[in-house]
Amino acid sequence: xxxxLVLAKSAKGAACAQLILDALSAPGVFxxxxxxxxxxxxxxxxxxxxxxxxxxxxxxxxxxxxxxADSEQLPELNQQQMNKLRQLSIVSLSKSSKVxxxxxxxxxxxxxxxxxxxDLIIDAIYLDIIEGKLDQKGMCLRxxxxxxxxxxxxxxxxxxxxxxDWTETSEKILALIxxxxxxxxxxxxxxxxxxxxxxKNLESAKVDANKASARSAFHDGEGYDRMDQEGAxxxxxxxxxxxxxxxxxx
Length: 250
What we know:
By secondary structure, this protein is mostly helical.
């Protein structure tokens, strides 16, 4: 396309009209928006003789084959140009649906033969115009991806509005996510603090329980010692009394 843009700077009238036809036939050229905006090309719109060439170029930029077929004031296309416009039309159709029935494609592209339609689609896939698969059993084309086409006049503002709405929605979603993350973080912090307090109280309770157990064991041991001492004293007194009794008898 760069070569055609350079030539368009100096081509006027018939030369510019022929330049358009050459660009439409050029292999690998599928985007024409810049050429449409070229000053010399725009001049053709006011020419009675070459106005059709200008409108034909606009169809290749963002129109469809069905629009071409419905018009009687556009230059005749050769087979290569017809195939290119049909393939670009498939791109436009895939914007509204990723599953395109053969019946719909035949109607939009004005093709009666299914084999011819499938060959056209296969060429479009090889040219990277679309990515998809032919579903011969389901009689449809399943589009996975497609190249971008130029925007129609007035669509730029609509696209900007769509992007603005998308940005605002994204910002709201991100704000909501941030709020949820903040709540989760606070909840985790509260849980960690509660867990730490619980573990501290549990450890303190264990220490108190150990101290109480130690005191209880100490008191129990002291009681046994006293009983042993008292028992020993009693036995000693009884022994002394018995000795005294024997002495008196003697």
